[in-house]
Amino acid sequence: MCESFYHSSKLLYSPKRRMEPSQCALAANFTNQQQTAEFTIANEGVGDMTDSTKYRVYANASLVKEGKVKLQKGASTTLEMPSQVVTYRLEADQVPHHPGQSRPTVSLQPTSIPTNLPSMAMPMPIDDFYQDDADAEVDIYCLEIVDSFDPNDKQVSPRGISSRHYIKAEDELEYLIRFQNTGTDVAYNVVVKDTISEHLDIASLRVGSGSHPFTYTVTGRGKPVITFTFKNINLPDHKTNEPGSHGFVKFSIAQNPDNPKGTVIKNTAHNYFDYNSPIATNEVTNIIGDTVLVSPVAVAVTDCGVEEPTVAQAGSTISLCETSSAVLNGNQPIKGTGRWKVVSGQAFIVDSENPGSAVQALGYGETVLEWTVSLCKKTSTSQVKIFRYQVPTAPFIAEVPLQCEGDALRPLVATGTNITWYSDAVKKHKLSTGNEFTPSVTSSTTFFATQNINGCEGPAKAVEVKIQPKKIEIVAKGDTLVAPPADSYQWYFNDEPMPHAKGQKLIVKNSGLYKAKVVTNGCESISENLEHTIHLPAAELKVQPNPVSEALSLTYASNATGQVQLIVRSHLGIQVMHFSAEKSLTVLEKNLIVSSLVPGMYVLEVRLGREVQRYKFIKL
């Protein structure tokens, strides 16, 4: 905890003397929801800076940036850095010939510290460093807040960095001596004696404030003694009035100008209460040494008056087909911090500070996202558009009638947008584009087409190109031959058309060569000759009608061929008619005219070699 006191006797600027008209002043605070430490360097003087002034930024005791500024009257510049668990400190020099001894400095400590943070990683106390109170009219003092302490103690500011309490050779030391009446009665007089180190310049002594009126004297040389006398202080004891039992005195003193590095400056005070023995305070120590350490982590300090944010780049337009998520492609800022936001449309940004964040729950249509890179109060913005489209339906394809092999094929016609033709349903083998596609095939083939709208390709629609081949196959199922389905049929036996054989199926009666000619949708096809052999288990004779008036229709089936004798006998066995016929096929079909026979019973006898078949019939 630090307190500042300013007295009205501050030295004023005078144009008659060679005095710097500017006044460098520093301020610090957290911004961006405690995520950014912001330091301001301002010129609060009566004129412009006649020369530039240096500044230094520290993280704990590590120098992380130094630079120069030159500001006009009333102007300011800002430095920013990311919040960390460190004490940030900004130091700046006054321009040469500035009146007084001011060395501006300001510090920022984190507002919260993790509970499990090791003591070695704790932010350094502000009082470890010097305060800007070298001017007589300024008094700044920082006290560490502790649970309990020795009521008679001594503190020094700056305390110095690290456990060795290193300070700079030019640092002025301010001492605070505190005392408390822990006796059982009122202390009427209190005397505080402090022996000054030989490394301090007694001539620079500036006596500060005290809790009660006091006088002081300086005696001795080499190690002079300052004596502070609180006469008639009437300090109550701590049990009677604990708050009123305390007192203090402060003074500042500069170092000798020639103190070398390694000089140890020690100090102890003694408190006297009336005629009691003195109570010694703790000893405070400072060592002249290196107060600038190497930073264990890189700290990016931004000079807001000079530096510009990285130009934001939100990436290229994203088009989505049905899916509702995407990955953004903003640029990683070199200077500044980036953040995404939804400008229009519907979307959920998973990590708004990640340039490559995922974005989910995208609505259909256009969504606009903006990537903003901020540095200090400067920004650079870039927008990206995300289009989410529905997948289109499959196109409509007009059916094509059956076509003849060898004829010029008709084109396939699809209705839709940006049609693509494929040879497979999984769309790996692209054939053509456009609403019309003329295939080049010689047999029936299935093709597939899709339409593409807004870069989204829909499902494939199948269409079959049916081609009637010039050659067909006939199949034998026993003694039945079957042709493929067609509009009309013509069967051939031994290359001769068979009268009345015009169906899809043909029952074979004779061994020989068979083929079929078919017509389908105007396409003529013919099969190869199929040799078919009839194998009868026994000869068979069929005669009709019976009884008969005019003629008998005879069908004689036999594996044998040759001259067939046809004999008609009366019921007494007398031959009444005789015919001969050449049988070259399996089946012999013959009509016998019997109209000249008198009515009665007869026997038809068929002879072929050793085969004899007899059949009785009645002549009407």
Automatic annotation (TrEMBL):
Secretion signal, residue range per the UniProt entry: none
Pfam families: DUF7619 (PF24595), Ig_7 (PF19081)
Residues of the Ig-like domain: 392-469
Domain DUF7619: 150-286
Entry superkingdom: Bacteria
Protein name: Uncharacterized protein
Source organism of this protein record: Rufibacter hautae
Classification of source organism: Bacteria, Pseudomonadati, Bacteroidota, Cytophagia, Cytophagales
